[in-house]
Write a structure and sequence with these properties.
The protein is mainly α. It is 56% helix and 12% strand. The longest helix has 14 residues, at 46-59.
């Protein structure tokens, strides 16, 4: 991943609303949700939601497809995992034992991969 692509993704997630939308779509992966369901789940007016959806679709984090008269939004899980890998690929200067100690101490240890390689 290039730094400019990562920056675009972080910019898209810098809004509380967009972060909530993305996390909701991750929860509903792989099927995603239509705009009305997203608005209902998060209590966001449709006009505001369209603005935020456009930003996260533009970043690549969310894909959209037409479903009849609705648009279905789906989290791009491979890109999400790629951004996590981008953030962690140089952790501890390639010392997997040190990284493993941090993983073991992390409150997120139950969702992190056990090994770096």
């Amino acid at each position: 991943m290039q730094t400019n692509q990562a920056s675009k993704i972080f910019e898209a997630l810098s809004s509380d609303v967009r972060l909530d939308i993305f996390r909701l779509l991750v929860r509903y992966a792989p099927g995603g949700l239509v705009q009305g369901d997203i608005a209902r789940e998060l209590g966001i007016p449709s006009t505001n939601l369209s603005f935020h959806l456009k930003a996260i679709v533009h970043s690549g984090l969310v894909d959209v497809e037409r479903e009849g008269r609705f648009m279905r939004y789906k989290a791009n899980i491979p890109l999400m995992l790629e951004i996590v890998a981008y953030l962690t690929e140089e952790c501890c200067s390639g010392n997997p034992e040190a990284c493993q100690r941090f993983r073991d101490a992390s409150p997120a240890r139950h969702i992190l991969p056990r090994r770096l390689d």
